Amino acid sequence: PWDPSTYLAMQYQLQQFWEAQVNTSYLSQMHQLQQSWEAQLMENAELWANVNKLQAEISDSKDRLTRLEEEVSSIKHEFERPTNEIVRTVPVGTRQPRKRGRRPEQSSSSEEAL
Q1: Terminus of the chain with fewer CB atoms < 10 Å: N or C?
Q2: Number of domains the chain is built from
């Protein structure tokens, strides 16, 4: 015999079963999404740390390059100075060393003085 209350009870049980299945599947998907999201956040944090580290290295390299360019410019300026300025910077009392070999011949006027 068919009883509407039994039918409603069976329908309610089926509904609960399917809701439980759907909820379990939904929760499982949500859990997987959350894990994926957290893994992505960790990867992003690591990537940003590397980006910041590389930016710091680039900044340091630019500073070092600027200092080297200034140093090269000052050295280049030293080599481009006119010769007479450089000659004036030779300390007094220093002279070019004598050439090897025979002494230069003395002129006849210096021999006559002897």
Answers
A1: N
A2: 1
> Which residue, chain included where needed, has tokens 């039918």?
7
Range of the domain at 42: 7-89
Does residue 94 or residue 87 have the better pLDDT?
Answer: 94
Rounded distance, CA 26 to CA 15, Å? 16
* pLDDT of 61 higher than 70: yes
For residue 111, tell me if it sits in a domain. no
pTM to 2 decimals?
Answer: 0.44
Evaluate whether residue 102 is within a structural domain: no
In a domain, 106, yes or no: no
Paired tokens of 9: 């009870």
Closest among 35, 36, 32 to 24, alpha carbons compared:
32
10 φ/ψ sector (left φ>0, alpha ψ -120 to 50, else beta): alpha
